[in-house]
Amino acid sequence: MSSQQKNEFSEKLMISADGQLKASQKIPQIARPFVSEKALKYLDIVEKFVEEECIPADAVFSQQIGDSVKQRFSGHPAIIEDLKKRARELGLWNMFLPRNHFKEGAGFSNLEYGLMAEYLGKSRTASEATNCAAPDTGNMEVLAKYGTQAQKDKWLKPLLEGHIRSAFLMTEPDVASSDATNITLDITREGNEYVLNGSKWWSSGAGDPRCQIYITMGKTDKNNPSPYKQQSVVLVPADTPGITIHRMLGVFGYDDAPHGHGHIFFKNVRVPLDHMVLGEGRGFEIIQGRLGPGRIHHAMRSIGAAEKALELFVARLNDPRKKAFGKLLNEHGVMIERIAKSRVEIDSARLSVLNAAITIDTKDAKFALKEIAEAKILVPTMALKVIDRAIQAYGGAGVSQDTPLANMYAQGRTMRIVDGPDEVHLLQLGRNENKRGKFLLDRLAWQRKKSEEMAAKHGMQLRDVLQLDRVMSEKSKL
Amino acid sequence: MSSQQKNEFSEKLMISADGQLKASQKIPQIARPFVSEKALKYLDIVEKFVEEECIPADAVFSQQIGDSVKQRFSGHPAIIEDLKKRARELGLWNMFLPRNHFKEGAGFSNLEYGLMAEYLGKSRTASEATNCAAPDTGNMEVLAKYGTQAQKDKWLKPLLEGHIRSAFLMTEPDVASSDATNITLDITREGNEYVLNGSKWWSSGAGDPRCQIYITMGKTDKNNPSPYKQQSVVLVPADTPGITIHRMLGVFGYDDAPHGHGHIFFKNVRVPLDHMVLGEGRGFEIIQGRLGPGRIHHAMRSIGAAEKALELFVARLNDPRKKAFGKLLNEHGVMIERIAKSRVEIDSARLSVLNAAITIDTKDAKFALKEIAEAKILVPTMALKVIDRAIQAYGGAGVSQDTPLANMYAQGRTMRIVDGPDEVHLLQLGRNENKRGKFLLDRLAWQRKKSEEMAAKHGMQLRDVLQLDRVMSEKSKL
Amino acid sequence: MSSQQKNEFSEKLMISADGQLKASQKIPQIARPFVSEKALKYLDIVEKFVEEECIPADAVFSQQIGDSVKQRFSGHPAIIEDLKKRARELGLWNMFLPRNHFKEGAGFSNLEYGLMAEYLGKSRTASEATNCAAPDTGNMEVLAKYGTQAQKDKWLKPLLEGHIRSAFLMTEPDVASSDATNITLDITREGNEYVLNGSKWWSSGAGDPRCQIYITMGKTDKNNPSPYKQQSVVLVPADTPGITIHRMLGVFGYDDAPHGHGHIFFKNVRVPLDHMVLGEGRGFEIIQGRLGPGRIHHAMRSIGAAEKALELFVARLNDPRKKAFGKLLNEHGVMIERIAKSRVEIDSARLSVLNAAITIDTKDAKFALKEIAEAKILVPTMALKVIDRAIQAYGGAGVSQDTPLANMYAQGRTMRIVDGPDEVHLLQLGRNENKRGKFLLDRLAWQRKKSEEMAAKHGMQLRDVLQLDRVMSEKSKL
Amino acid sequence: MSSQQKNEFSEKLMISADGQLKASQKIPQIARPFVSEKALKYLDIVEKFVEEECIPADAVFSQQIGDSVKQRFSGHPAIIEDLKKRARELGLWNMFLPRNHFKEGAGFSNLEYGLMAEYLGKSRTASEATNCAAPDTGNMEVLAKYGTQAQKDKWLKPLLEGHIRSAFLMTEPDVASSDATNITLDITREGNEYVLNGSKWWSSGAGDPRCQIYITMGKTDKNNPSPYKQQSVVLVPADTPGITIHRMLGVFGYDDAPHGHGHIFFKNVRVPLDHMVLGEGRGFEIIQGRLGPGRIHHAMRSIGAAEKALELFVARLNDPRKKAFGKLLNEHGVMIERIAKSRVEIDSARLSVLNAAITIDTKDAKFALKEIAEAKILVPTMALKVIDRAIQAYGGAGVSQDTPLANMYAQGRTMRIVDGPDEVHLLQLGRNENKRGKFLLDRLAWQRKKSEEMAAKHGMQLRDVLQLDRVMSEKSKL
């Protein structure tokens, strides 16, 4: 077979594999009806911005953070402000706020922003550069949705401008936080103040000197008979007396500075009554509303990380210096198969997230719980597999600072834990599926009876018997 | 927490888990824009027909086939004609022929039929009952697309009516058939006849006494310099002298009677010249066109099989007689987690198939090769996992004839082999993905250079260096 | 590198890969101290007998069974008697009976027989040929260990001679049999007889016309407060009035004739009082004693099946006719990697079984429960993986009757179910491991305290705190 | 069932699960014949030392290293000297040097030390405390085996005393180091000196200020026709002019200070001719001899890490504060199953390593290549699985510095890369296994012929044909 013929034949498969296809051209056919012309245009701008400005800035950012612990959590890498300026010029700002619920955002749907978030996930700096970084995104949603005008003026406005940052304080060190009813931080009303006592950890973003507001969940009514009415959410300025950042937590060996993950002590921390969000006992309601879109954002950024890992993997296979046993790595079938599996797994997981985003857009997050849970379960495990394969192809470079892979793996690993560990989501999904049990048993029994009637009409008596049917039909004799 | 409160909270997750939701209500949100009102209506009719008539008929069908080998491959279970009659009454006939290419079908798109095929896949008899059974479906497409009027009158018409059945003879026992250029059956022109010599196996459907036509691929020009121009497809009546069904092949221990899988010998089998399809040397073109939609059909039926297995699994967990260690199986968290994983995996795989179907509908199968390959790779492995979990929950009943599970597993296992084994599709996908190598290396080098410029602007020199970038930048110094 | 040099370098790896090494030379170094000279000699004879006589006989055996259901369960393939005669000549008879407990056997330890059983597992006929086939092996152990002299004379003697066969009737269709306390077959004493009523299934071996004795477990005392004292084991001649073989069960479409798996009804089946084994209420004791070595036998035969599958896999890769995409399969790295993984997994699983066998030999089965459970869990999943890879390499031939692979897969799949499904063994192992919980928590707390003392001695106070330690030390403050 | 009865029944499973069993009592039965009385005694001392002194010291060690990069790679945690002093008192020193090859060690076999290494692997400090830390262990073996008396006096003696540390410089950044023939560091003889130019990375241990000697592999004869004769090993004092530690590499964010992993530049580094080890061109021979036991040490330490992770997992499940959804984690079956799987996988992998160690002891490392490769492939993947499960059970604490789990994961991940990535070992094992191809094909053909003879003797002709046999028998007709 001549090489020309070979090309003709395989050309057909090339379509979306061509590196030069733009982001807007790679949207899965099934999702296209949901994407506006405007979003198509901005999606390509996002891709260009990420590839041409953010990814190159990542290395500069890493180095500007510095070496000593003190330095890393007190400075602010200058490059990030360059990027923010550029992003605003390009119109890439606050794209995460869905147009059907918020007037403050850039006017995209959850699906459209989801498509963009994939590209943001390829770079360490891109989300912050476009003011789309967690946990600010969820916090801005909370403030926009539930905040009083005064609360909005004071905190939402500077957040929307990217002038300050924020943290969401929910997780606690000494309880099983996967079950949010377990939280214990005490919020007691004393006169015209709330007094907070307790501790929080995994307070992400609390390390950044620009983080000025802690949106804090605690219990105002721990004896309320409903376990979902005991919690409240209070706005606590970061510099309120009584707050100590006890220490910063690592993720594997990374400190994620300057952002960071704080372990924070509250000792008689006092805030005015008007710092309560929505009202006492409505904390659960607030976190419920906050979680859906945030999980989609996380998931789409993870898809982006997986795509980035796959790109690095493919590049490695074609690196002319890395011949092993006389062959370039791309001649090793084992490697090619891993590339292919990664492609299949990424594409399939992406569809799951896009479907969840569309369900949120179409029917609201509370009717998309199954779809969100599925994406939440599926994506991190997929991303870890893809990233791990790339690490293996890089060998020593893969676990070191010379590629972003090890860091992406560490981030990805936390995704199986944050916003509820896999097990909790699986348990809920499974129990829900299990509710079909009675219906299914009844239907099987009905089908069995019909089957016997059909057999009788053909002059036969059935010999083998579906286990379940027998159980049911015997039961019905009782 | 009162039980009432518990319900309120988890109710939200119930939406699509309620057994009473109809098929049309369960379509993933992302696929809805592609489904017509008519298709929604017929989809619900399909579901009803399958659940209320076909599944009950399955047990009757199995028993009517009989016991001895001879009996099993010579009769025709009467129940199937009952079902066909009923299906035609309901308007469920030839739904597989896509409306944008064929006027002969029921007027649905590939996506719409795909949604229906899922339900057909839950029953052993449903596909044949609606005249949507492989390999007739693909064979009818070939005849409709490439046949002469005479060929259509003779073979397509009775196939469309469900009066006869057909087989597609491609695979051969003594070559690596995953590479179709390897086939060897000889087709030599002698006067006004073609003479065929060789052997074929896995000729599915050849066991049925109603199978009257073999669409046969062989080589008319084995010395053609293009390995894709050597093959031709010829129509061979099943009763042509020189044809022997040497034996029937089993799948695990199943003979799949009366359909079956033949091992067939051709010894000087003669057919007139007008039995050639499309023209000599155009065999590859024909099979290329045949494969895309067929893979989608297989995949969607496998999704249906997986859903059926999951239903049986859930039913088992709720079987009041099956208490192990003092608990119903549905109280065992391990089982609940498997249910949940199955739900996630099925739903995600379905989206992959639906996206492929939509890509075929929108852009044609030849632009959907990647999407088809992904679904082809993803679905069988998923289905096997789900079915295997259900088997394990049933124990002895799961491997026996008392559930359809073991049979579904055996069928599912062949799906990793037919139409090209997983490895071939992975190899093609992987090689295709690998073509991005040069582009990605260039982009990484460009990003590296930009990174250095950015650092310089900030008065820094970069310390750590992306492995690949270094290689490339050092190379550029040469 | 010259080809000569290449060989020198890789020669070192060849040692146990050389096809000509004998069985006795392939015993893992770690197991050698436990194997006598006599066993080494007989192990090689077993291998030779299996490879040169039994494997060639397998195809003849399959064909001699016949085609119709009736024929398959009424005849006795003549070839099996040829093999039995030859086996006795070679001294290969009843090797399974361990020398330290039984005088009736060939004088080997459980380990030594285990090594032999691996080779028996490579052929369908070898176990019966050497009178080492389940369930006769376990049944003979029961009779030898617990039988009266009269029981031994009547049943053990002809079993040891291979003149009759036997079945063990424990599993029941309508309860969760994985929990043996659930069985319900009623045994009521009436005068000088026991009267049995109920049903059993998966009565393996009951299909063989030579099967003359059913060792049957039922309940004589269902109200006994101890759930382990309610059961008794009774010897029931197969031709006792009131017994009906309702039907034979399939395993993935295989009927396993003539052996088979019976679904049997007992209706007022009467046996004399002296047919009780060991005494009323001692059924649990009997099955406990029966299970350990039997699981080792199953596991070692599965190891042999996996080795056979791997041999077929390797052979396929070197089949000169099976070139795919211009290369022999053995040039495809993906295939080579699967070969290697299979080798690693088989060898590791074998060590687990051998260790369990040695633990039984050294300390008795009741002190080897953990080791037996580990082998029971590990081996079937391993074997299925290896066999499945081989099936995939064979494609269509792999799922059909043209290789033993699909049948081996079906057999292997039941191994995850029989003698307790994986889940039950995992649950027991896990609960047992979990008993270390308190000890481990206490030790962690102790280590934490010691850690603080050490830090104090160095003038430091510890900053980070092991989660668990903190919990414990805080608890200790209470 | 009364709780008493329950205990009686499950007691049997408790044997090795009881936390109080000593190390010597937990040795798998199969390995016992290989362990001397002395080793049993010292094994228990090792366990006690690790649990009571090293593990408590780990937290102190971590904190003594300090915070800033400079500090971390220039100091020497004082606690380590406390431990070393104590270890020597206990006679726990240099246990790694096998008695059959070296007189300098503590007189144990590879197996015996392997059993001890498992316990050392549970603590971060234990290996160094007993002078059994890599890479010193392999380096001491090299010097003891191949060094001149002068080399031994200068370097081996202080290493054996624990006064200095060492590094082995093989891996290079710009080649595929998994293939050692690719290394490029140039060693040119000039007069009475060797001059070294090039770079090395992953020079583990080079960060420690006490590291005084680099055992360095390079090429003295890059044009030698044998790719295995081009390399030499030279002793290079760490303070030789021309050496720069360019930077230290991270492993998932960990710097592994003070040990560390150096990226080192060599620019005209000069050493006297007598610093050559064994002779020019003998570098391959040296690394071959070095790798076997080292892989066993790594593997057994990884087993220990996995056991430690499992202990932490079990402890977590019993932590009274961590109730999720109303249950202690140990009541969640999903968790119990993971505990059980971990137990099975650890125990099986350990047997594989022990068998490899025994094979080295009995037959020498060069006859144990297969066994070593199997352990090398099996253990890291197993350990990562076990550790990852524990991480998931701990949630946030699992990825942070509050447990050793994340660090153990990072270390474990490198084990799939160092000393050759998994893929290289699988490729070698697979190719080796594949050499049986011709033998197996021939045997299958022979068996097929025998099968036909047997059939003929029974008056039959075989119908179904083993695929491979047919190929072979047809070939034989040619």
UniProtKB/TrEMBL annotation, chains A, B, C, D:
GO molecular function terms attached to this record: acyl-CoA dehydrogenase activity; flavin adenine dinucleotide binding
Keyword Calcium part of the UniProt annotation: no
Lineage, opening ranks: Eukaryota, Fungi, Dikarya, Ascomycota, Pezizomycotina
Gene3D superfamilies: Acyl-CoA dehydrogenase/oxidase, N-terminal domain (1.10.540.10), Butyryl-CoA Dehydrogenase, subunit A, domain 2 (2.40.110.10), Butyryl-CoA Dehydrogenase, subunit A, domain 3 (1.20.140.10)
A Pfam match: Acyl-CoA_dh_1
Membership in a protein family: Belongs to the acyl-CoA dehydrogenase family.
Domain Acyl-CoA dehydrogenase/oxidase N-terminal: 42-162
Keywords: FAD, Flavoprotein, Oxidoreductase
GO cellular component, one term: cytoplasm
Acyl-CoA oxidase/dehydrogenase middle domain residues: 167-269
Family annotation (InterPro entries): Acyl-CoA_dehydrogenase, Acyl-CoA_Oxase/DH_mid-dom, Acyl-CoA_Oxase/DH_mid-dom_sf, AcylCo_DH-like_C, AcylCo_DH/oxidase_C, AcylCoA_DH/ox_N, AcylCoA_DH/ox_N_sf, AcylCoA_DH/oxidase_NM_dom_sf
GO biological process: fatty acid beta-oxidation using acyl-CoA dehydrogenase
The protein's name: Acyl-CoA dehydrogenase NM domain-like protein
Domain of life (superkingdom): Eukaryota
KW Metal-binding (keyword) present: no
Domain Acyl-CoA dehydrogenase/oxidase C-terminal as annotated: residue spans: 281-432
